[in-house]
Design goal:
Elements lengths: L8 H6 L38 E13 L5 E13 L3 E5 L6 H9 L6 E6 L3 E4 L12 H6 L9 H14 L15 H14 L4 E5 L7 H17 L4 E5 L11 E6 L2 E6 L1 H20 L1
Parallel strand pairs: 3-7, 3-8, 5-6, 6-7
Antiparallel strand pairs: 1-2, 1-4, 8-9
Helix pairs in contact: 4-5, 5-6
The protein binds adenosine-5'-diphosphate and magnesium ion (MG).
Adenosine-5'-diphosphate binds next to α2.
C-alpha cells in the first residue's frame, strides 16, 4: 500500500455517519457500578478564561443549504468552554446538534460563523466501535498514527504500551482486532489517539452500542487517561444520564442551541425535571 493510499483514522471515520435514534425520553438513567467520582465537582469552573480552556467555542453557527436553495440552521450561537484536564459531557435530544458541534470542534466541519479554539493534537472518536479500528491487531492499530513520525520501532512500541496501559488494554497487545468487544475496540481507538500525544479527545456517544460492563470499561479508560496526564481533556457526547456522575462539567443542548452548562449534577436535575414534565404531559 502506498502512503497516499494509507487509510487514516480520520478519513476512515469521516466516511461514517453513525447517528442513533434518541429523543428526550431516551435520555436514559440507570445505575452504573461505582467508579472514583469526577475529579471534583467543586473543581467545576467555567470562567471563560481562554488560557485555562482546552476547548472553546464562541457564538458558533452552522447551517446547511438544501437543494431547493433554502438555508437550514443546525447550530445557533453555541458557546462553551472546557477547562484543560477535565472531562465534560454534552447531552441533548436526538437531532439537537451534538455531533455537528463535536465535528466542528474536531475540524471536520467549518462553522458558518463564530470562533473555535481546540488545543492540538486533537482526535475525534466515532460512535460505532466497528468503525474505529483499521488494522488487524491491537498493537498495529495503536501504532498506526505513528508510522510517519520518524520514531524507532522501540520508541513506537513503548508509546503503544504506555497508551494501552492508560486504557487498561496492555495485555491485549497481540490480540486480533476482531476478537475484541465493542468497548475494547473503543479503548483501542482512544489508545491510538493517546499514542499520538493527543491533548483533546472528542468522543461521540461511544457507549451507545455497549453493554454495561463495556460501558464502564470505556468511561474508566477515559478517566484514567485524564488522571495519568493532566494535559488530556475530553468532551464526551452521551445520552446516558448516569454517566454524568463521572463528569467535571456538562453542557445541555436543545434545537441547535446550548441551553445550560455547568455543574453535572445541576444539569442532571435539570434534564430529569424536563423528563418528568414531559411524562406528565403525555400521561395527562
Ligand atoms: N449533512 C447534513 N444534511 C442535512 N441535515 C443534517 C446534516 N447533518 C446534520 N443534519 C441535521 O442536523 C441536525 C443535528 O444533527 P446531529 O448533529 O447529528 O444531532 P445529534 O448528534 O444531536 O443527534 C439534525 O436535524 C440532522 O438531521
Ligand atoms: Mg449524534
Amino acid at each position: 500500500m502506498t502512503n497516499k493510499d494509507e487509510p487514516s483514522r480520520h478519513l476512515q471515520r469521516r466516511r461514517l455517519r453513525g447517528e442513533n435514534a434518541m429523543n428526550l425520553g431516551n435520555l436514559i438513567h440507570s445505575s452504573l457500578p461505582r467508579l472514583a467520582p469526577a475529579r471534583s465537582n467543586s473543581s467545576f469552573r467555567d470562567n471563560g478564561c481562554e488560557n485555562a480552556a482546552a476547548i472553546e467555542a464562541r457564538n458558533v453557527n452552522f447551517s446547511i443549504s438544501t437543494r431547493q436553495g433554502a438555508t437550514v440552521p443546525i447550530l445557533t450561537d453555541c458557546s462553551l468552554t472546557v477547562p484543560s484536564g477535565q472531562l465534560w459531557m454534552l447531552l441533548g435530544p436526538n437531532g439537537c446538534g451534538k455531533s455537528t458541534l463535536l465535528r466542528i470542534l474536531a475540524g471536520l466541519l467549518t462553522p458558518t460563523n463564530g470562533k473555535v479554539y481546540v488545543k492540538r493534537p486533537k482526535n475525534y472518536v466515532f460512535q460505532n466501535p466497528d468503525h474505529q479500528v483499521v488494522m488487524p491487531t491491537v498493537e498495529a492499530d495503536v501504532a498506526f498514527g505513528l508510522g510517519k513520525s520518524g520514531f524507532t520501532s522501540m520508541e513506537v512500541r513503548s508509546k503503544v504500551l504506555k497508551a494501552l496501559d492508560a486504557v487498561g488494554m496492555s495485555d491485549y497487545m497481540q490480540r486480533p482486532i476482531q476478537t475484541l468487544s465493542g468497548g475494547q475496540k473503543q479503548r483501542v481507538a482512544i489508545a491510538g489517539a493517546l499514542a499520538e500525544a493527543c491533548k483533546v479527545l472528542l468522543l461521540d456517544e461511544l457507549t451507545t452500542f455497549l453493554d454495561e460492563s463495556d460501558q464502564i470499561g470505556v468511561i474508566r479508560a477515559v478517566k484514567n487517561c485524564l488522571e495519568k496526564s493532566e494535559e488530556v481533556t475530553a468532551l464526551w457526547v452521551t445520552h446516558r444520564l448516569e454517566e454524568l456522575e463521572y463528569a467535571d462539567g456538562a453542557i445541555y443542548m436543545e434545537d441547535g442551541k446550548v441551553i445550560k452548562r455547568g455543574d453535572p449534577m445541576r444539569i442532571m436535575n435539570f434534564i430529569r425535571a424536563k423528563q418528568s414534565s414531559y411524562s406528565n404531559q403525555i400521561n395527562s
